[in-house]
Write a structure and sequence with these properties.
MetI-like_sf, mainly alpha, Amino acid ABC transporter permease, globular, amino-acid transport, 263 residues
C-alpha cells in the first residue's frame, strides 16, 4: 500500500519528530506557556475592570465597556494581533527593543479581556440581588458589598469558563508567529512549522499538535470535573421520603411538645 506508506512518512516520521522534540520542549512549550499565562493574567485584570464598568449605574462607564467588548469580540484574533503588532511596532521598539513578543501578549490580552469581562459580568449578575441589599442593610457601602460578597461569589461560579478561556488563549498563541518572533521566542507552532519546512515533512507539526493536546486535553477534563462539582454540589442529595413516612411525620407531634403537654 503505497498510499499508506506515504501517509506514515508524511505525518508519522518518528525520526523527524524526535529531532524537533528538544526544541518543542525547551523553546516552544516554554514560550507558549509564557505568552498564554501572561495574556490570561492581564486579561483577567482588564476583564474585571470591563465587567465592573459594564454593570455600573453610570452610562458613561457602561457604554465604553460595551463598545470595547463588541470590538474585541467581533474582530478576528489574527486581525487584532496584526493591528496591534504592526501598528505599535515603532513605539514598542523604543521601549522593548526589536522583539514583538510584548505586542503579541498585549494583543492576546485585549482579546481575552473582552471575553473574560463578559464571563465576569454574567457571574456577578447571577448572584442573588438580595445579598447586595442585605449587605447594604448591614451598613456596608456599595463598593465594599461588591468587593467582599458579590464579586467573590460571581468569580467562583465562572471558574470553569475562565479555564476554557485559558485553553482558547493557548490555541490563539499560535497566531503570534505572524509578528515574526525571534528564534529564542518561537512558540510551539512556529517551531514545528520551521522544522517542517526544513525537512519537507509534516511530522514536526504533528508533534507540535501533540504538545498542544497535552496542555488542552487535561484542562478540558478538569473544567468538566469542576463544572460537575459546582452543579451537583459536594454532598449527595438525601433519598426521597416515601408518602407513608411523610404521613407519619405529620401525624406524630414533636417530642418536645408532647413532653411539655404531659407536664
Amino acid at each position: 500500500m503505497d498510499w499508506l506508506d506515504n501517509l506514515v512518512a508524511t505525518f508519522l516520521d518518528f525520526d523527524a519528530m524526535w529531532q524537533v522534540f528538544p526544541q518543542l520542549l525547551g523553546v516552544g512549550l516554554v514560550n507558549t506557556l509564557v505568552i498564554s499565562i501572561a495574556a490570561t493574567v492581564i486579561g483577567v485584570v482588564l476583564g474585571m475592570i470591563v465587567a465592573i464598568m459594564g454593570i455600573s449605574r453610570s452610562r458613561w462607564l457602561r457604554v465604553p465597556a460595551r463598545i470595547y467588548t463588541d470590538v474585541f469580540r467581533g474582530l478576528p484574533a489574527i486581525l487584532t494581533i496584526l493591528l496591534i503588532g504592526q501598528g505599535f511596532a515603532r513605539m514598542s521598539q523604543q521601549i522593548f527593543g526589536p522583539s514583538p513578543y510584548p505586542l503579541g501578549i498585549l494583543a492576546l490580552s485585549l482579546i481575552a479581556s473582552a471575553y473574560i469581562g463578559e464571563i465576569f459580568r454574567a457571574g456577578i449578575q447571577s448572584v442573588d440581588r438580595g445579598q447586595l441589599e442585605a449587605c447594604r442593610a448591614l451598613g456596608m457601602s456599595y463598593g465594599s458589598a461588591m468587593r467582599l460578597v458579590v464579586v467573590p461569589q460571581g468569580v467562583r461560579r465562572v471558574l470553569p469558563a475562565l479555564v476554557n478561556q485559558f485553553i482558547a488563549i493557548v490555541k490563539d498563541s499560535s497566531l503570534v508567529y505572524f509578528l515574526g518572533l525571534l528564534v529564542s521566542e518561537r512558540e510551539l507552532f512556529r517551531v514545528g512549522q520551521d522544522a517542517a519546512v526544513l525537512t519537507g515533512n509534516l511530522s514536526p507539526l504533528v508533534m507540535a499538535g501533540l504538545f498542544y493536546l497535552v496542555i488542552t486535553v487535561p484542562l478540558t477534563h478538569l473544567v468538566n470535573h469542576f463544572d460537575e462539582r459546582f452543579r451537583t454540589g459536594r454532598r449527595k442529595a438525601a433519598p426521597p421520603k416515601s408518602g407513608l413516612d411523610e404521613v407519619e411525620e405529620q401525624q406524630t407531634p414533636p417530642t418536645a411538645l408532647t413532653y411539655g403537654s404531659n407536664t
